[in-house]
Amino acid sequence: MRTASLLSAIAVSACLASPVLASPKCTDQPQSKWLSEEAMKAKIAKMGFKKIRTFQRTMSGCYEIYGFTPDNKKAEVYFNPVTGAVVEKNVDGE
């Protein structure tokens, strides 16, 4: 019984100590209103992002990429999938 309590306490502590990693909320629109992946990828390329390693849909209604900015800095960027606008951008050194 004591071991189970100790393990539960450790698990709770680990959860509280770990950072919350969550993507922003980008849209509530249904996916039928979203730009196609091909159209979004073209829009992203026109913005100058390159060497895209990851392109994915998030559970919070975004398109997300991991790649590089036009000046070659690592970037994680969330886009509104309906408008293609940048919602949040995390760039190394900024």
TrEMBL record:
Residues 1-22 form the signal peptide. Pfam families: PepSY_2 (PF13670). InterPro entries: PepSY. The keyword Cell membrane does not apply. Residues 8-89 form the PepSY domain. Transmembrane segments: none annotated. Keywords: Signal. This is PepSY domain-containing protein. It comes from Rhizomicrobium electricum.
